[in-house]
């Protein structure tokens, strides 16, 4: 009898403990004023569709209060404290004394609250079957009378019944914002919203291709609707909530105020935008960009301090400030355009009178070349009648001479060999490919000369000749210290990125090598010789040819063997050149006493043995940055991998080279890493007597 009474006592005591310490039931969908949800408890909607509780995302140890599909807990549809994660398992959700929902951490500090504008007695929170978490008064269940609801504050996922846009009742702008990463639900860089003011647009710019724009293809970017006009004045328009522009071409001055920054940018013809760098946190600092506006897009509202000032002609700025007076703006725009055209016409007229160009047609056809044509007699005079003393290079299709115009401007004249049918197509191609390209790392074409069988291209003169003049010469290579070599590599990468992605046309060079990288007075690299280049239209990314043209040692396997070329072919060639710049050795003809590999194979062996620094030329030992050398070798090997799909795009190459903190994948075996005693054993070449010093240019590849 006594044992039975003791058992009843234990059972009653256990029941009392369970009622005291067990947390809120996970089967309920409602949170009353006198209840709390602890970490480990959940609310479940009536139909068991949605669940509310605490969670951690992926490998993160932070805790968040959120709502997810009960059948798929990883699919989180709403997060309360996405900007303020909690640590530990002591989080609790409750209804506070002021009738608001509050989320408390382990120290009882408020992490998040619903911040009500009005209160009711005895409020109740409920998770509805729609996934909406709502707070309402004890006697009110009408959706219009909810005190607060999670649907008014969407996160990253749109679910049925969730509305996007401006809420007429609350005046809230309801929109979705991406997670920062798979493990971090804080607001990311992308938003999905209804803009009542129309599409976001950059004032003063229009699509490069309206046809692509109409089918939602924005990859070609925009161009100025009105060109810059220093004569009639220029200024800046403030664009708010914009992600900082691409940092390939920029200047930074951390001690300059924003007003001083504006003045400095206005004085610099190449400056197209400026912003407050705010590096010190006190609102000072100046960032100035040159080149193109790359990756200009809105950023989330929590980054709204990122205002950028974009340079526009005065006419465009006036049209923004005085939008109500459209007729006046049209007159200003027309006047500015007219003055600009008259000014340009006057300048062009002076140039035409100076150099006496002729408009001729290639092969007798009347095709506009859209650049100045020079008289043969003028070019002959500038080069001392093509004197041997003025010869600066012997190329595959002719000679290159140095000359000087009557304006004292030095030029390089590329003269096509007479009767060279092979070179005529390349001549036409070079004119059409490079005539409209403008980039500091591309050689500038000044004009051409066509007279009878004579065909010549006139370029800006590069006093330091080409890259191969330095890196393959044991004495001159010492003149290029490591930092200068690295700057040259980055310059070539930027130029190639422009050709592949940022120019008006997508251009595949197909003959990148040291000889085709010219160096100006400051040793800034300029990609040249576009005779073999191919223009890709629209979304075209690759092509195939039976006429394989290029230089042994730089050609990718898929191009040399199958005639397939793409942007990845140029990536291969560029990074053969990168490894040559690091080592000071040619890939083709490389010899080593311990193996028969070419330079790519030698670099691969050193990499696998963790001896990549041994690839570096000895004269760089005192000036090198070892981490940069190591990174260059790794990027070079990533880009000469056998399969084109394994090679990174040029945008990734430029990023990996310029960012020490970027994590790089491990490279796979390169293509063409064994040097044969003769030209490839599996192929035979029919040469048409085209050659360059120390390099073999092939034109057709056929199977035996």
UniProtKB/TrEMBL annotation:
Q: Which GO terms describe its cellular component?
A: plasma membrane
Q: Which organism is it from?
A: Camellia sinensis var. sinensis
Q: Where is the Protein kinase domain?
A: 386-664
Domain of life, source organism: Eukaryota
As its record notes, the protein acts as a catalyst of: L-seryl-[protein] + ATP = O-phospho-L-seryl-[protein] + ADP + H(+); L-threonyl-[protein] + ATP = O-phospho-L-threonyl-[protein] + ADP + H(+)
Q: Which residues form the Bulb-type lectin domain?
A: 28-148
Q: Which residues cross the membrane?
A: 332-353
Q: Where in the cell is it found?
A: Cell membrane
**InterPro entries, per the entry:** Bulb-type_lectin_dom, Bulb-type_lectin_dom_sf, Kinase-like_dom_sf, Pan_app, Prot_kinase_dom, S-locus_recpt_kinase_C, Ser-Thr/Tyr_kinase_cat_dom, Ser/Thr_kinase_AS
Q: Name one GO molecular function term.
A: ATP binding
Location of the Apple domain: 222-313
Taxonomic classification:
Eukaryota, Viridiplantae, Streptophyta, Embryophyta, Tracheophyta
Official protein name in the record: Receptor-like serine/threonine-protein kinase
Mind telling me which PROSITE patterns this protein's record contains?
Answer: BULB_LECTIN, PAN, PROTEIN_KINASE_DOM, PROTEIN_KINASE_ST
Q: EC number(s) of the enzyme?
A: 2.7.11.1
Q: Which Pfam families match?
A: B_lectin, DUF3403, PAN_2, PK_Tyr_Ser-Thr
Topology of the protein relative to the lipid bilayer:
Single-pass type I membrane protein
First and last residue of the signal peptide: 1-27
Keywords of this entry: ATP-binding, Cell membrane, Disulfide bond, Glycoprotein, Kinase, Membrane, Nucleotide-binding, Serine/threonine-protein kinase, Signal, Transferase, Transmembrane, Transmembrane helix
Top EC class, one word: transferase
Q: Would you identify the family this protein belongs to, as annotated?
A: Belongs to the protein kinase superfamily. Ser/Thr protein kinase family.
